[in-house]
Amino acid sequence: MKSAITIFWMTLILGCSDNPCIDLCQQYELYLDECGYGWSTVFSDEGWVTLDDCYDDYWEADSTVKGTCETDISEIQTLECF
To answer: Are 42 and 32 in contact (CB under 8 A)?
Structure first.
């Protein structure tokens, strides 16, 4: 978890906000925290167990993947807890 926090602060400090996929990972984290869900439960298909796994997959995303992330961000913001 320490790595995730470090990456989060590096993202803010270095201005990596030009990668919407990093923003998507942060939105996923907020959703999971609000609903009390776990990474491995919700994202088992992706094989993600922690926030770091999301960052690892998306840190160097190409333009096509970044476009998909931009779409996904608006969708994740509308998800509700069950």
So the answer is: yes
